[in-house]
Amino acid sequence: MTTSILGVHGVGMTFDGAGGRHTALEDISFDIGARDLVAIVGESGCGKTTLLRIMAGLQRPTTGDVRLAGVPIVRPEPQVCLVFQHYAATLLPWRNALDNVLFGLRPRGAEGRQLRQSALALLDRMGLAADARRFPWELSGGMQQRVALARALIRRPRVLLSTSRSTPWTSARARPSRSCS
Amino acid sequence: MKGSGGRALGYGLVLGLLLLWEAASVTRLLNPFYFPPVHQVARSLFDAALDGRLATALLTSLGRGFAGFAAAAILGVGLGALAGRHLFVRRLIDPIVELLRPLPSPAIIPVAILLLGIDSSMKVFIIGWACFFPILLNTIDGVRSVPPALVETARNFGLRYAETLFTVVLPAATPVIFTGLRISLAVMLILTVVTEMVAGSNGIGFLLLEAERTFRIADMYGFIVALALVGYGLNRVFLLVDRRVLAWHHAMHKVPTP
After folding, report:
1. Alpha-carbon span A150 to A45, nearest angstrom
2. What is the spatial distance between Cα B130 and Cα B254, in angstroms, rounded to a whole number?
3. A–B interface: beta-carbon pairs under 8 A
4. Please, which residues have CB within 8 angstroms of residue B157's CB and are 6 or more apart in sequence?
5. How far apart are CA B227 and CA B230, in angstroms?
6. Which residues in B60-72 are b (16+ Cβ under 10 Å) and which e?
7. Where are the beta strands (DSSP E) in A59-110?
8. Contact A58, A82 (CB under 8 A)
9. In this prediction, does ipTM exceed 0.90?
10. Of A95, A105, A97, A99, nearest to A144 (Cα)?
11. 3-class SS of residue A32
């Protein structure tokens, strides 16, 4: 077991709804090390996405905490990238595939040129070199998913989370970049 | 092809009706005092255009109209974005909006005259008031309809509140916001004319009413035609902006899902 990069410690989550208090997660603990590939399996509605949202800092747990390299995550953490299952709804329809990959990175100047090159290289690795200028709605579901993945990978996250039931990682054209720990 | 044929026929129908009006007026089938022949209306309009009366009046009116429209757009989109994002703000403004929205805007003209007088500021206020609600409500709807996953992704990537609002939420809501802007553009023209008719000494609404009161009936029709053309032109310009700004939105709904 390598050193823990992301540690989930005693995480619990309860929601107060119209039907009373609902416990989604209870005392979840595990560690993820560098280059670990972890699958969280469970039936629909058992709290997998809630757990991933907590791990990415998008939601605070009711109990316990999540630590990135020992530091508690208390706000959205760009180092822990989440690729949503509804990837099509996370791509900006007014930006082409390349600009979607660069979303939020402010590619300006020399650094910007380098970023654009990296984005193009990533799209190329995803088999989307010819589709960089196409808009998300001009791409198939699988292609949109790969754009969403490229957008996460270009940020070189230390942890990549995916709520997708079937990621395109197994495809020979779309291996996860080494930058993903 | 069928569509363009229909359109040509539609313009032909307008031309036919104008010719019918001209013939009925010249032959006195219609009382030419109330319905002066079309050529006289055209000449009145042409004269008003030549001596600068029309341009001055239109510039004054559109200046007021756009001042009110711009204020309504800034406030409506600003408050609508906040209300769309935050339930608290929505609940806070909802009772006031629901009480004031159904109120016909001309009903507050007396209040506005009392407080602001009969000058441009009163007119701009009334126009802004009337334009505000369609923009506000459409912005709230548009912002609320933005897919939560889009906002979550922006948060996950570390974008700040304002950055998320301006680069994700508002662009995604633009198609619905534009619906509100388009409604308000029509409202703007209506209220510009109404306020100028109620109070004031310039603008196209004032000229129109003055022509009627001094029995210059051909002038009156001329100004009505000018207003119709302005309304048509404004809508065309808006559609051009819409096609440009929302090119992605229109293209998206044309492309069959691959």
Report:
1. 28
2. 34
3. 64
4. A76, A78, A81, A103, A104, A155
5. 5
6. bbbebbbbbbebb
7. 63-68, 71-72, 80-83
8. yes
9. no
10. A97
11. strand
Cα separation, B18 vs B37, whole angstroms: 9
**Cβ within 8 Å of B, A 35-74:** 53, 56-58
Helices (H), chain A: 48-55, 97-101, 109-125, 141-153
**Which residue is it, tokens 């009925």?**
B24
Across the interface, which of B157, B163, B251 has its CB nearest the CB of A155? B157
Cross-chain Cβ contact A92/B252 below 8 Å: no
Dig out the tokens for A28 from the structure.
Answer: 């979840």
pLDDT tens-place string over residues B7-61: 899 999 999 999 999 999 999 999 999 999 999 999 999 999 999 999 999 999 9
Q: For residues A181 and A177, what is the distance between their CA atoms, to the nearest angstrom?
A: 9
Judge contact between A155 and B158, C-beta under 8 A.
no
d(CA B204, CA B111): 23
**CB atoms inside a 10 Å sphere around CB B201:** 9
